[in-house]
Specification:
Elements: H1 2-16, E1 32-42, E2 45-54, E3 60-62, E4 64-65, E5 68-69, E6 72-77, E7 80-85, E8 100-102, E9 107-114, E10 118-127, E11 136-139, E12 143-145
Antiparallel strand pairs: 1-2, 2-9, 3-8, 3-10, 4-5, 6-7, 6-10, 10-11, 10-12
């Protein structure tokens, strides 16, 4: 599993053009809560909301995709998490650069629609340092799309 996480982090670095090396250390469970909830079922797919809450006493930082964190979708297939696909367009407005900062006690939400049946989770890359030199993969709860 560590080899997969290391490969995933390298992929994230390539996709995000992030500077610095990222470790694969497991983040403290008490710092962040990442939960995905079903907002509704529609003909085009399940509307899902990922909420990231910083329950620590310090800010945390995430790789950026537009105004929010880069969000990857992983699917559980044949006993393995696969994909780590960032299949959403990142449109950045002027002034949106660098990592996304989430202050202590704050939350942010990202909405997505998934239409293919399967067992999923979302993943983001984050850390305590603004340059993401301590960045690691953080995953949400698992969920099913019927």
């Amino acid at each position: 599993m560590k080899e997969f996480r290391a490969s995933f982090v390298v992929l994230c670095l390539s996709l995000c053009a992030c500077a610095g090396e990222m470790s694969v250390t497991v983040p403290p469970a008490d710092d962040l809560r990442i939960a995905v909830t079903l907002a509704g079922r529609r003909p085009q797919g399940d509307s899902l909301v990922m909420t990231v809450t910083n329950v620590s006493t310090h800010p945390v930082f995430f790789t950026r995709c537009g105004p929010g964190p880069t969000t990857f979708v992983e699917q559980f297939v044949n006993g393995t998490w696969t994909g780590a696909v960032h299949n959403f367009l990142c449109v950045q407005a002027p002034g949106e650069n660098g990592p996304v900062e989430l202050a202590a006690g704050q939350s942010l939400s990202v909405s997505r629609v998934l239409s293919e049946a399967g067992h999923y989770r979302f993943a983001v890359v984050g850390g305590d340092e603004a340059d993401l030199s301590d960045g690691h993969v953080l995953t949400s709860n698992e969920f099913d799309v019927p």
